[in-house]
Amino acid sequence: MVHPYLRGARTPRVLAHRGLVTPDAAAAGVVDNSFAAVAAAHAAGVEFVESDCHLTADGVVVLLHDDDLSRIAGDPRRVADLRLHELADLLADRGGLLTLEQALDAFPEVRFNLDVKADGAEEAVGRLVAPHAERVLLTSFSDERRLAALAAAERAGAPILPATSPGSRTLGRLLAALTVRSRRATDTALRGLDALQIPERHRRLRVLTPRLLDAAHAHDVEVHVWTVNDPEDMRRLRRAGVDGLVTDRADVALALSA
């Protein structure tokens, strides 16, 4: 069955990568994953926002991509070493810090695609998303973190498990199974997944192939490709049968879909 996270949304899916920061907004100092970036994506008509979860020193889940603040605030300190109020002060003039709890409450129409970035954040993420599981997808490069967050959501009383896409280990198993054409191993690798969120290529390896698309679709698993910002690439991938595009330019992708 199609997970409610995907049900009823227009296709191809447009997933706003860390929200939407237009060139004008970036020039004004707005950074990705900020309150302003998510608000801009929502205002543009985006249904899906991709974001990243870290844990502050005082145990609050915040939407930030990097381990530290070097890139977005010129501060080398780590997110895990800062308290919520310190982070809020640093990002006050950069679009505003956004916690996971705030994001889920402030944007009830948005479906969140959440990458659990930090060890130790799984329990808090799972607990927070449990009441919103029908509009959340949980993922991580670490399958251990991903599965731990799903388990935490279940323990917290989620009416259904959030949707999910695989970490690196599961994706590696799938690619190996497809290479040797093992139907049993392919079935196992795709079991329990709702989407494959992948790059088109990883170094010299082509990840997205017709065989992968066919296998995923045969198991009712969508394929979302990241990070796609060029309009011609967007058109080409849509023609290839990709179900969703993770993009920094959700405004451009939406315009192409209109």
TrEMBL record:
Membrane-spanning parts: none
Alphabetical list of SUPFAM superfamilies matching this protein: PLC-like phosphodiesterases
InterPro entries per record: GP_PDE_dom, PLC-like_Pdiesterase_TIM-brl
Taxonomy, superkingdom: Bacteria
Domain GP-PDE: 18-257
UniProt xrefs under PROSITE patterns: GP_PDE
Protein's name in the database: Glycerophosphodiester phosphodiesterase
Pfam families, A to Z: GDPD (PF03009)
